[in-house]
């Protein structure tokens, strides 16, 4: 954790969709709970030519739309924290006025206070924005920078962005967001593994047969036409969210719960990922169908032209180290699938010898299902005897031991993922943020897959909206005797 807590927060893209849906509601909820520093001032900036009052009105409308009334607290108190400065980030000319605004609203404690910057902008503006901040003196020792994705489209472009940021900020003052790391159940992965002696001794290839990670969406393009067609499922979901989930599942125990120790272990996993060959990947693109009983158009119809961008991908890979030798990891993500769900399935091996086999009782391997969204829960499936008398032998059945996190912690408020991350940004705790070497290891693996696709002429197979993707995705696991969890 860096040594200062910010007393000013500068939000780039403050009038955009992310700010309205997530950032401002998260900050207001933190304020309602008394978690923001008392003197924290929040300065918004964007191209929109509005003043403080108009920005506060926009923020009020966003809070009324996206934050439940019981979480708003004293909205007037929160809105009084807000101010605004118009800025065209493509040139340095407006940055002096921005710096003056930051100084004007600051009540900085010279010893402990500082500035946190949240940069949510097009990748093409990262360089000019950093240059403008340097020009205006907004990159000093008491300033930290938070970066929202996308951070490039491949390793080369990501390195260019990171080089530009590193020219103004050292790594210990750079906070790269992956909002999945702010989700309670994702953080609970660490607690599940490292706070319970039950799991860690069996968390290896001796006991675990395979791991599945699924991130399924029911939505289509939803106004992200240009971005998504340039990115596709592999770069939009796998490169960041899914590889972070995989790293948390597979990492070795860190020496402590601090940013360096946790991120050191994650990057080891990412570097140990086996290169995925074309035959162990599947790509798809949805066509017209029905989702939740509603007819939806195909991707090509939504886009208005043919495209080779994948809206679905499934991948089989391995973590080539001692712990995970021979354990396949299956990743699957896509749009216009039957349900919205993010989950991790850990499938254990069968018992080595069944004493019940001669009595006609079949066994199913135990599994651990970690639900991340829409429901946050953990389910451990065990075998149990069916009650009653049976002349033919013993009957066994799977019994789920389920912990629904909202029920288990009913007295605790369910939070937006960005609340945790924004609070950590203000405090200076990097544990749940992504380090540069993690990002580059992720891109190295993703770029190799894309190169495989290009070299082998791989194009997306079509699948009907509302289905679980192309039939090839089913074959990917079934040839190993594995079925996707659905």
Short description:
By secondary structure, this protein is of the alpha/beta class. It is built from 14 helices and 17 strands.
What would you say this structure looks like, in words?
- This protein is of the alpha/beta class and 486 residues long.
- It is 35% helix and 21% strand.
- It is built from 14 helices and 17 strands.
Shape: globular
Poorly predicted segments:
none
Trace the largest sheet across and list its strands.
16-15-14-13-7-12-11-8-17
Biggest sheet architecture: 9 strands, mixed
Give structural attributes:
Rossmann fold, 35% helix, alpha/beta, nine-stranded mixed β-sheet, six-stranded parallel β-sheet, globular, 486 residues, Dihydrodipicolinate Reductase, domain 2, 21% strand
Write the topology of this structure.
Layout: E1 8-12, H1 17-32, E2 41-46, H2 52-66, H3 75-79, E3 82-86, H4 95-105, E4 115-119, H5 126-135, E5 143-147, H6 155-166, E6 174-176, H7 184-194, E7 208-216, H8 225-250, H9 259-272, E8 281-287, E9 289-291, E10 294-296, H10 299-303, E11 312-318, E12 328-334, E13 341-348, E14 367-373, E15 377-385, E16 396-404, H11 405-408, H12 417-427, H13 436-455, E17 461-464, H14 471-478
Parallel strand pairs: 1-2, 1-4, 2-3, 4-5, 5-6, 7-12, 8-17
Antiparallel strand pairs: 7-13, 8-11, 9-10, 11-12, 13-14, 14-15, 15-16
Helix pairs in contact: 1-2, 1-12, 6-13, 8-9, 8-13, 9-13
């Amino acid at each position: 954790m860096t040594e200062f807590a910010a007393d000013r927060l500068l939000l780039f893209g403050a009038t955009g969709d992310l700010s309205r849906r997530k950032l401002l509601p998260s900050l207001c909820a933190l304020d309602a709970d008394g978690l923001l520093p008392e003197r924290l001032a929040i300065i918004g900036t964007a191209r929109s030519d509005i003043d403080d009052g108009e920005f506060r009105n926009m923020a009020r409308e966003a809070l009324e739309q996206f934050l439940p009334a019981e979480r708003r607290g004293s909205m007037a108190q929160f809105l009084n924290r807000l101010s605004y400065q118009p800025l065209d980030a493509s040139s340095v000319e407006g940055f002096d006025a921005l710096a003056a605004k930051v100084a004007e609203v600051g009540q900085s404690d010279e010893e402990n206070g500082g500035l946190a910057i949240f940069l949510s902008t097009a990748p093409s503006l990262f360089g000019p924005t950093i240059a403008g901040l340097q020009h205006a003196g907004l990159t000093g020792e008491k300033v930290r920078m938070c970066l929202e994705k996308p951070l490039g489209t491949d390793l080369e472009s990501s390195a260019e962005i990171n080089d530009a940021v590193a020219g103004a900020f050292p790594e210990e003052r750079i906070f790269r967001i992956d909002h999945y790391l702010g989700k309670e159940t994702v953080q609970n992965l660490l607690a599940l593994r490292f706070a319970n002696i039950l799991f860690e001794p069996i968390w290896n290839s001796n006991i675990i047969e395979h791991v599945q990670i699924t991130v399924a969406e029911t939505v289509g393009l939803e106004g992200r036409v240009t971005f998504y067609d340039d990115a596709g499922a592999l770069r939009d979901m796998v490169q960041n969210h899914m590889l972070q989930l995989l790293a948390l599942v597979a990492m070795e125990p860190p020496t402590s719960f601090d940013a360096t120790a946790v991120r050191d272990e994650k990057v080891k996993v990412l570097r140990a990922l086996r290169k995925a060959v074309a035959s162990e990947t599947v790509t798809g693109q949805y066509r017209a169908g029905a989702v939740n009983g509603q007819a939806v158009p195909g991707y090509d119809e939504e886009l208005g032209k043919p495209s080779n961008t994948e809206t679905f991908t499934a991948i089989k890979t391995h973590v080539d180290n001692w712990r995970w030798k021979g354990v396949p990891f299956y990743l699957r993500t896509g749009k216009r699938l039957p349900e919205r769900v993010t989950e991790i399935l850990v499938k254990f091996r069968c018992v080595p010898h069944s004493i019940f086999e001669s009595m006609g009782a079949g066994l199913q391997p135990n599994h651990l299902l970690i639900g991340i969204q829409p429901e946050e829960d953990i389910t451990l499936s065990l075998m149990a005897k069916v009650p009653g008398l049976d002349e033919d032998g013993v009957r066994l059945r799977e019994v789920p031991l389920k912990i629904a996190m909202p029920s288990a912690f009913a007295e605790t408020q369910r939070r937006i993922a960005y609340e945790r991350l924004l609070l950590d940004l203000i405090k200076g705790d990097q544990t749940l943020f992504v380090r540069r070497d993690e990002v580059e290891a992720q891109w190295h693996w993703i770029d190799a897959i894309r190169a495989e696709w290009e070299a082998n002429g791989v194009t997306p197979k079509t699948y009907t909206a509302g289905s679980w993707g192309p039939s090839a995705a089913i074959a990917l696991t079934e040839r190993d005797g594995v079925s996707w969890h659905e």
